[in-house]
Amino acid sequence: MRDEYVGLLISMATLFAILSIAGCSSNDSEPTTAESLTSYERSTSRSSPNTDRGYAGVNLASPSVGESEGFTLLSPADTGVSFINEVDAGHPLKRLYHSGFVCGGVSIGDVDGDGTPDLFLTSGPGQNRLYRQSGPFRFEDITEESRVSGGDSWGAGAAMADIDNDGDLDIYVCNYDSPNQLFLNNGRGRFREAADEYGLGIVDASMTPAFCDYDRDGDLDLYVLTNRLYRQGGRPSRPPYSVRDGHPYVLPEYQKYYVLKHHGGSKYSIDNTGRPDRLLRNNGDGTFTDVSVKTGVTEAGHGLSITWWDYNHDGWPDAYVGNDFNDPDHLYRNNGDGTFTDVAVSAIPHSSWFSMGADFADLNDDCRFDLLVADMSATSHYGRMTTMLVMNADKISRITARPPQVMKNALYINSGAERFYEAAELAGLADSDWTWAIKLADFDNDGRNDAYFSNGTVREFTHADHPMDAQQMIGRTEWDHYEGSPPKPQKNLAFRNLGDLRFENVSQAWGLDKLAMSYAAAYSDLDRDGDLDLVVANLDEPVSVYRNDLSEGARLLVALRGERSNRQGIGATVSIETAAGRQIRMISPQTGFLSGNEAVAHFGLGTEKRVERLVVDWPSGHRQEVRGIQANQLVTMQEPPAEESDAIDEVSEAGNRRTTWFRAIGAPGGIEHEETPFDDFAAQPLLPRRLSQLGPSIAVADYDNDGDDDFYFGGAAGQAGQLAVNDGRRRFRVVSITAFEADAACEDMGAVWFDVEGDGDLDLYVSSGGIESQAGGEAYADRLYLNDGSGGLTPALANAHPGLRDSGSGVAAADFDRDGDVDLVVGARVIPGEYPRAAATRLLENRNGRLVDATQHVAPELLSAGLVTSVIWSDADGDGWVDLLLTTEWGPIRLLKNSQGRLVESTDAAGLARLTGWWNGIAARDLDGDEDIDYVVTNWGLNSRYKATERRPAVLYYGDFDGLGDKQLLEAEYEGDTLVPVRNMSSASRVMPHLRMMYDSHDQFATSSLEELYTADALADAQKLTATTLASGVLINDGSGAFEFRPFPRIAQVAPSFGVVVSEFNGDGTADVYLVQNFAGAAAESGRMDGGMSTMLTGRGDATFAAVSPSESGLVAPGDATAVVQCFSGKQSQAPLLLVGVNDGQLQAFDWAEEKGPAGETSRPYFVRVKLDGPGGNPLGYGARVTLRSASGPPQTAELCAGSGYLSQNSSALVFGTPHSSEDAELEVWWPDGARSSHALSPSPIQTLHYPEQ
User: Where is this region: Disordered (predicted)?
Assistant: First the structure.
């Protein structure tokens, strides 16, 4: 191994010997000689055929082999790295041990130009250390002769970067409340301090530096992240504020420590304040200028991480700032004009609360950069129960940061559409304990980026049994309060990327599960064998140096030498292509926490032995490409002169991007859903989620019979529903309906248009729901509005319908009994104040224009159907009679088969009884080309703290647990095979005070199982509900009404899905699916479930689907989306318009985007739009099945369902993809009464098919 290592250096030195470029002068007035150039620089100009191709390559050493297949922790005796970050109990600044300044940083780079990476370690209160690598994993301490010890300063983060662009690495160190230090390298690993000379001697709570050429002018600029200044002696005994003109203000001498926070009215509180960060522009003349205000980087915060990355891949580096405590995170988008805009609110749904370290990489193999931000979220039930005091509901309600904050890691998956998915729970990376540094890299060389977390803390600062209140901070610091408590070491963690956003915990298998207080961590291929080694800073024990002995997969290292760009190529992106696919990296070494990786791009190649194409996009704007590179090399790319570069043609690049399928347009009619604030948890404090935020609904129909679609938009409690009328030119206007205004107190749930009277126009039924009123109150009254045929809608007479007063859900219409008129089913959601008790779902039979409750006689099982969320009429068994399917919460998807007008419970026979979930919506269509009807069912997804399997389901009890007669809710989950409570003692004991008498500590509560906390009799007597799956997916029909469940692709599980449209969106003849998502109304302790933005899934014709990126579909629907419908405008239009209802938000609309062909002509997929002219009492043919047949493609089958998805009614027009040839195509209709007819496909854009008797 050592012989190969030395041979590598000799090979690189030989390359240098034939180097024919001139050296540069250093700022230390010492000439840059041959010896002071790095080996990477030498290798870029070696005399070989590769030089002419723009790169030089050196073979890597053979992979190291250890005693086990993993990482080997080398001893200080082996490495020579004996450095220890010690807790200095006598230091005058020991109060900093409560902060991110607790432990020093790690930086890796080649400071002496010998081609091997060296280590720089900062030491908090001690002296920094510089270790030169003299052989594979052999280091010598050269601090004294290098003059980089830092003196008496309390050092934090440091960066190795070529600040003066002279070809060697300089070192910049951030210090706490003393001047930051800049050590300029003379090219041979000797340094002089020059911070003041460069304008970089900042004195503040400087946490860590990050260099990047943000303005792309060829030199490195600097972001200095700050944290907080800790006042000696803690808070003063005298209040640090006064009052002037009736307004409080912080006294000047305390303003750098404290800030006043306004809580409304005359309520204020005093809090610690973070410090403002600084952005400094390199002037190119050996000085820097503070441009923070000028560029828009002005926010103060408790900063713990700064990450330079190009999230939107526009070539301009952006910055993500992770802040601790209540300070919001920031995503500064580089505008390309020297300014930044904080786009965090629009780009991410929520952030971690106590944001720690962060790193970015492509984690889902789509060549877009994703970002992972750490928090302190526990991996165990005990940890959650004993630290959740910091995230109780009251405290969360006082957090006003935007984006909202959630106490768990945040994984932002790049959609390419200026908004990110948040998928930490889905990927299994949401909880990693008290994490400091994150490292995302391909540690096993399989071509996928893995994750490493450094964990632990000097003391347990957040234990629920040891709180610290404001009074205890007077006259003493936080460290004074906790110094006597024991340390909190935790295991470091490693996760292997399995693909498809799945990560496997390999901490123990890889030998990285060290129990320690670990902080900064950096990676580099220290022994040049092509895999990444790790260096981790620990508290009170030596730095960990890990040698990577996984010895798997081929590998490639790419180093850059800039000419017009900065010398290291920081900010450049490097991408490769192999037969296995593409990979992308960005040279941005300062990632994680107080960490600087070596500025070399590393690629794991798996079994690939050759890189077909390597592309470097330099910060200068030039693109460099090399083809045909053998694996297992260190390749150095030298930026060519301007005249030899391929400039990135941004105009051409933009022109090559495909037009999106849809484009967002303004809210039709300016419609907005407006919730009235309501405390769902007042009556039932342990509710899993809010029940007052379940709307809005949307129902589409040609209400005025003018040939295009209008729609009803359901209002919240206190807001009237709205009717939007289509003018035929894809524009809508809201018309005033007096009856709607009179019913504004109702919370609209399901709505459906149907002809109740058989007079040829469409009437409207609206169910009422929510929990804002007492059960049975007038606000829960369902409504029937009759159409007078001339645009008016008036309330039906009291005897025209039963006037149901349950808290309802979905509504669906069909002629279930084949008597020629349309009947209804009305779902019931919950009994207000008694969740999870459900009201009775009802079947309303149409008898000569009157709706009569026929449930007891026709479908008695509906009375106990459970918490029904959606309903749909559909012929599941293909016998010509529409059956009834219902989705339920804490229950199965229920199937009641229609036995010639009577509905028979068939859930178990259909194979659905064991598939319990929190089902939300259902839609029908043939998804696999076999001409029976399959179903899309929406659920809560896989991206929340809730997990559910058949063996270990999610559990809910409802019963009397304290013997006082009142029923309470009790959520439970499995840890291993033990059932434990979901809610902590603080939450549970508020409604069950006996717990405080039985358990006097959170520790006791956390170590008790559910059966130990509550009596066996109480649990046995309680109502028990379970959910075995939370995934959304499809029910594949075997033709007889028996089903197999198949989950959707994982990205579709990133949030709860509600509304769904199943239609044809790309014209290929196979059904596609559009889901809308998100729910932010979960109990505060459970966090937000808003990681989605809607999902388009294209069908493959076999009931499997591929997710379409929002950057391609154009469908970005943030917020809590509920209903989604497809409608049409104009008599000739084939292209759909999608409407998305958002709870407490503006209606979103997406129009089909016109796509330009090669000659500039408008092109779009061709759709067949089908409308039915049905029999008298059912004029739109609700319940009919239509099949398009063609010899040139598989059959396409759809049903016309009046009421489907979630709180939705789609247009009565069905959409099919055009066949390859329309000459032999025909449409077959199976009408609701059993009649059948065939119709040739006409050239008309809209096919109107008439009932055969007409």
Answer: 27-59
Q: How far apart are CA 142 and CA 156, in angstroms?
A: 20
Q: Which residues contact 440 (CB under 8 A, 6 or more apart)?
A: 359, 360, 361, 363, 372, 449, 450, 451, 452, 591
Q: Are 883 and 838 within one domain?
A: yes
Strand order in the sheet with 181-185: 155-161, 170-175, 181-185, 191-193
The pLDDT of residue 469 is: 82
Residue 999 lies in a domain: yes
Task: Give just the sign of the alpha carbon dihedral 1008, 1013, 1019, 1020.
Answer: positive
Report whether 479 contacts 485 (CB < 8 A). no
Q: Within this chain, do residues 1001 and 1063 fall inside the same structural domain, yes or no? A: no
Which residues are paired to 766 by β-bridges? 751, 783
Does 980 lie in the same domain as 889?
no
**Rounded CA gap, 304 and 356, in Å?**
5
How is residue 1084 written in tokens? 């505060």
For 979, the token pair is 């059932």
Q: For residues 1040 and 1180, state if they share a domain.
A: no
Beta strand pairing call for 633-638 and 554-561: parallel
| Lookup: tokens for 138 | 């052999």
Q: Domain for residue 92, yes or no?
A: yes
Cβ 792 vs Cβ 751: under 8 Å: no
Question: In this structure, is the dihedral angle defined by the CA atoms of residues 418, 419, 421 and 424, taken in order, positive or negative?
Answer: positive
Whole-angstrom CA distances from 1136 to 128, 727, 1060 are 65, 16, 14
Is 90 exceeded by the pLDDT of residue 1114? yes
pTM of the model: 0.94
pLDDT of residue 393: 56
All residues at 6 or more sequence positions from 654 whose CB lies less than 8 Å from its CB, including other chains = none
Length of the chain: 1254
Please provide residue 97's backbone torsions phi and psi, each rounded to the nearest 5 degrees. Answer: -70, -10
What is the secondary structure of 734-747 as a DSSP string? Answer: EEP-HHHHHTTTS-
CATH number (domain holding residue 1107)? 2.130.10.10
Closest CA to 311 of 290, 337, 330: 330
Domain hosting residue 794, numbered range: 662-948+1028-1152
Q: How far apart are the first and last CA of the chain?
A: 88
DSSP category for residue 483: T
**Weakest-pLDDT range from 54-63, 437-446, 1050-1059, 1141-1150:** 54-63
